[in-house]
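re: ur question from earlier - yeah i can do the single chain one, its not a big deal. heres the input i used so u can compare w yours
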Amino acid sequence: MTKALKTIIKIFLILIFVLSHFLSGAESGLEGKNIILIDDVSLSLEQRVEKAEKVFTTKFNGSYFLTGYNVNTRGGNISFGTFITSSDDRMSKISHDGDSLRIYHYTDTDLDYEEDYKKRIVLFLHKKSGKRSEVVNAVILKGGIRYKIKDIPLFLLGDPDTNESFNFVKKLFDSSSTEKFQKRALAVIAIHDHKGSSSFLYKTASANYSSNLRKSAIFWLGVTKAKDSIRFLKKLSNSATEKKIIKSLVFAFYNLNSKEGNKELIRLAKGDIPSSARRDAIFWLGQRASKEGIRTLKNVVSNDKNEDIRNSAVFALSQLDDDRSIPILIDIVKNNKNPRIKKKAMFWLGQKDDKRVIDLFESILLK
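and the output i got, formated as tokens:
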């Protein structure tokens, strides 16, 4: 087969890959050299990876290569944007053009990201060591961002079904010897449109892993906003005793951005938990600014015995929009009996450019 014919076949296969993305609701464009398709449907996903490794060993020098495929992802407050180079930990967002491989992957901005499932590209970074390779990093590419993968071959593995992909990543998680990769694998597992994603995150968060890995699992439970996330997070919250874990749960409940999540924030803000976790709950209540949350914050300012907690509640109230925060802060200045709390409220009022604040200060100064 001539070199020109091989090039034509390669371009044709890439066009098929791009077209399949377009028809599935997402659009992507690939260009550059060192793109190899291994999408034989008779092979399992693991077998395709093994074949990619053999091709890399035969045709390329160096220690690193990428494998990638399409995966169905679920909605939620998910944000990814990653640049993968040939190192174990260099991962950062870029926006400039590259001279080797560029990936454009985006979806219709009119679609509802909370409801619609998307196809995205998952990439795995393999490090060759001896006869075998180890997956050392993973990411799912965010739509709407342009990526460059420099000086490293990419093997496209087609479009495996979600169940096969989910089990493949789970196996990578279980067999990994590094927490750094396990955290990346949790992110990939979390966004899979698979019924087992949330339960896997819950089991990880409640198992005998390091607190950092459990915190990561809790984070993804909140961010992906699956239907069963609140149930799993509440179960974790009912048994959590470690301060780091409780603080992670506070942030996860905030990320849910739901009535149930707000109820849990309020419960934690009122609860007998470490002071720093309560301050977090109070702060995020202020950011969420529900009516019940504001009532809780005002009650904390008036009645809590811990002055640091009361100060945190004043700060949270000060972060509301002016039409809500200014009347509340003025009321604290006029009616709260603790001079230090009054002073804190006056400090935050001093950051507001509003006639009501000037009138208050005038009435105090000219008494």
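Confidence is low (pLDDT under 50) at residues 13-32, 76-117. not sure if urs matches, ping me
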